[in-house]
Amino acid sequence: MILVYIESQNGKIKKSSLEAISFGQQLKTLTGLELGLLASQTTDTAVLADMNVRSLAEQQLDSQDPVTVAQFIAAAFNECGASHLVLSGNSLGKAVAGVIAAKLKAALLSGVKEVLQHNGKICFKKSVFSGKANAIYSIPGSKAVISIMPNSVAIVRGGATQIEKKNLNIALTGGKYKINSLDLQSGKTPLTEAEVVVSAGRGMKDPSNWGMIEELADLLGATTACSRPVADIGWRPHHEHVGQTGIAIRPNVYIAIGISGAIQHLAGVNSSRKIIVINKDPEAPFFKAADYGVVGDLFDVVPKLNAAIKKSKSENS
Amino acid sequence: MEFLVCISKTPDTTAKIAFDAGLTKFVEEGVSFILNPYDEWYALVRAVELKEKLGGKVSVVHVGEAGSDQMIRKALAIGADQAFRIDCKPKDSYDVAQQIAEFCKGKSFELIFLGKETIDHNGSEVGAMLAGLLDLPFVSYCNKLEVEADKINVSREVEGGVELSTVSMPCVVSAAKGLAEQRIPNMKGIMESKNKPLEVLSPVNTEATIVLEQFELPPAKTGAKMIAPDDIDGLVNVLKNDLKLF
Ligand SMILES: Cc1cc2nc3c(=O)[nH]c(=O)nc-3n(C[C@H](O)[C@H](O)[C@H](O)COP(=O)(O)OP(=O)(O)OC[C@H]3O[C@@H](n4cnc5c(N)ncnc54)[C@H](O)[C@@H]3O)c2cc1C
Q: Is residue B144 in a domain?
């Protein structure tokens, strides 16, 4: 059986978990195995009504710390008689997937983007070498833990079903990892989950110029990001830094403004589905990785673009 | 305190990525290998800083062949006291974790550090598996760490925010940006590293848990569609109609 671990935030199942379910469905189609969900908190299943899932095993844990969650998932895997565990490769997934795999003596593939049939085997594709290549792996054993790269699997709906909930009652030891506080910036979509990202670099000249970047991001419902030097000199907060040493993202659209496109920057963003580059230097390496390019002065192009988007939006409404 | 830092070797950031004709082997010729930046800049340096503050010893362990010795000496030059190399070509990250877990048995490391990921496989796997095998708590993507008696106070970045936690030692910590600042080895460190112990150990037997079937290079971009800087309507059209952003 394929067990998909799902998480909720503010009472809603996370998008990354819906992606994990959709991945689980593809794996189910290829293997013929059954699929069930697992949650470590009481879950509102309303959004799952048309996702073709029939069972959810859940237990409200006292603590959602990664040590307790890993212990819980590993025990639940055995109790449900599962062979495959699928979960999001988000920050929780990164903290628990390997722990669970080691406890279960299961193979681990992390950051998987796709399941496919290859050489007559069921295989898993993931990006390697910081986005510069893909690798396709098969799993010789019977047990596997698979974490999914956020934003890489399309959410598939269709197939209305009744979900049967089952309560688990697994005894957990806990106590070694205590979360003291979880400070979430409200309102903004985290970079790793953002579908549209507007990013800017040293070409901005001064931190006071970022108003136009934030305005463009607001107009497009995007999250803002930046290049490393800009975070290093304190123009922008560190959590916006994308690239090799920052975070790796794969939004649907990445808009790079005043960023040269150094290889270490590209390492974190080259899996984006579409890349738009605005740079005044026609030789900027970023253009080679771009789908759309504008060679122009950002101080001229971006304000005009913002005005034109506003105009276009008001004409539509 | 006893610190262990697990270090790995990766192709240099700017290395050209190429594969053999069968697309099953990474072509290593002409590629320069480095100490994985996350292991070096953040994990190792934080361990050395804590040793300088609290006393104790920093050991480094690497699973790999003799070709890695120069890289291991660099870790010693940065400030590790002794090194161990488990002599084998690892089959996968589970193998690495098993070799290190076996090495840790009977020793009393209180803090085990490694980088949040390697820049070649980007798996973030070894630390978590090592923690699972040793039954220790695992702190992933840690960007701040202070020791307080038998516990550590840590901060880590999670989607859209920051988590602050207290974790019992011994434990395994994967290091992200912010945990420490890169240190360039100085002349004294380099001289001393030559005389620090590097012990070579035999591996334990393990079996591969995943099999690489094929590498593939992502399709090359066919060239960007260029829009003139004064064609703002063209750009709006792309955002609106091609990409459906509003
Ligand atoms: C080991 C290592 C790891 C690294 N990791 C990262 C990482 O994770 N992320 C990262 O981003 N970098 C990383 N770097 C740094 C990277 O090599 C580059 O130095 C950095 O990305 C450059 O940032 P930038 O593009 O903002 O600045 P610059 O390279 O200075 O580029 C500024 C760009 O803005 C353009 N510009 C200037 N004025 C205007 C204008 N008025 N209108 C339009 N365009 C304009 C210029 O043409 C130029 O292309 C790393 C480097 C190393 C060695």
A: yes
List CB contacts (< 8 A) between A295 and chain B: 226, 229
| Domain region containing B131 | 2-218
Asked if residues B160 and A188 have their Cβ atoms less than 8 Å apart, the reply is yes
Indicate the pTM of the whole model. Answer: 0.90
- pLDDT digit string, tens, across residues A144-186: 999 999 888 999 998 788 999 999 999 999 889 999 999 887 6
Question: DSSP of A54-86, one letter per residue?
Answer: -EEEE---S---HHHHHHHHHHHHHHTT-SEEE
DSSP reduced 3-state for B142: strand
Q: Say which CATH number the domain at B40 has.
A: 3.40.50.620
Look at domain A191-315 and name its CATH class: alpha beta
Q: Is residue B88 part of a domain?
A: yes
Phi, psi of B201 (to 5 degrees): -115, 155
Contact A293 CB / ligand 1 (< 6 Å): no
Residue B127 lies in a domain: yes
- Give the nearest ligand 1 atom to A226 CA: 11
Q: Is the pLDDT reported for residue B66 higher than 70?
A: yes
> Of A150, A138, A139, which Cα lies nearest the Cα of A22?
A150
Q: Report CA(A276)–ligand 1 centroid distance (Å).
A: 16
Closest chain B C-alpha to A263 CA, distance in angstroms = 7
Q: Which 8-state DSSP code applies to residue B143?
A: E
**Residue A16 beta carbon below 6 angstroms from any ligand 1 atom:** no
